[in-house]
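Journal club side-thread
Mid-discussion, someone asked how the predicted structure for our own chain would compare to the paper's figures. Pasting it here so we can look after the session.
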Amino acid sequence: MSKPTSKMGPIDFVLFSTIMLLVAIGVIMVYSASSYSAYFNPHIKDSTFYLKKQAGAALVGILFMFMTIRLDYHRIKKYTKIIMIITVVLLSAVFAFKPVNGAQRWIQIGGLPSLQPSELAKYIVVLYMAKSIESKGEKIKTLKYGIIPYLIISGFYAGMVFKEKNLSIAAVIMIVTLIVLYVAGAKTSHMLGLLGLVGLAGAAGIAFEPYRLARFSSFLNPWADPKNTGYQLIQSLLALGSGGIWGVGLGMSRQKCYYIPEPHNDFIFSIIGEELGLIGCTIIIILFIILIWRGVVTAVKAKDTYGTLLATGITSVIAIQAIINIAVVTGSMPVTGVPLPFISYGGSALAINLVAMGILLNISRQKEY
């Protein structure tokens, strides 16, 4: 294993270009999807309201991304424990604020932008695992030293996120944990057992919460309750279907006119399908495939175990969220609140994702040829 040095090469230009394209498309589509509802909202009355907030978050995120591109990713190690503690404090702080739509996921102070700590929790688990596993060696193959400690830490963060009524992000945390453990060299038999446990935990989370059970039932047959539990999925499918091959045109969506609730959030992909058609959806999917491919290449060529696991975890977070979001919007899995990375509205999510991309790009600058 080569010893980390401060010497850096050029960034992965394909990865960088893909990230910037996704951010640009996201800002444009947030404006297109939200302009109608923002203009006719009596509390806003400004069609560019969400555009301004998303564009501002994008600029801040890009600024920090360039900073992390220049910062040697090995220096993050000594700050990992501090960030873990800060994340726990932030995850606890959300319960001091009023619920929004029955969930307590945001920290909102005055007129400042809201913060969603669960977005940070996804990545802090990756930072912790990469740092800890690097020093484990062959112990990663054991259940006592290689599996259980990471299940406890990841489970703790996932549990706090679950407590916020956010099963989807809690599931992302646990899935990413399994991916990182597998790449690190955990035994296949252990991984199969863990996969079963995570699946059972997810099933229990659905079964013991009435609204989640209703969502699952509506996924099986959304037309059984078209005005309630099946409404959102039906409107999403109508948007995708009406877009056809070429779409109805940018800004011309009908479903965003109060048919799909908050179309600029989790169901923005259906608005893309309606306005830009199958062609637009295909381009988005291809961009995510390219991002995942370059993330995998970065992980394989990383100069050390820490870099490999860090790149694997960061890429997995984006990949899992993109897959789940597109599957939900197309009716391939039950409705759940996972945003589409870089595309869905959400300032803290966009900024944190861009910081993570900066770390990934920095790893790409320090390759082992």
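Post-session note: DSSP finds 13 helices and no strands in the chain.
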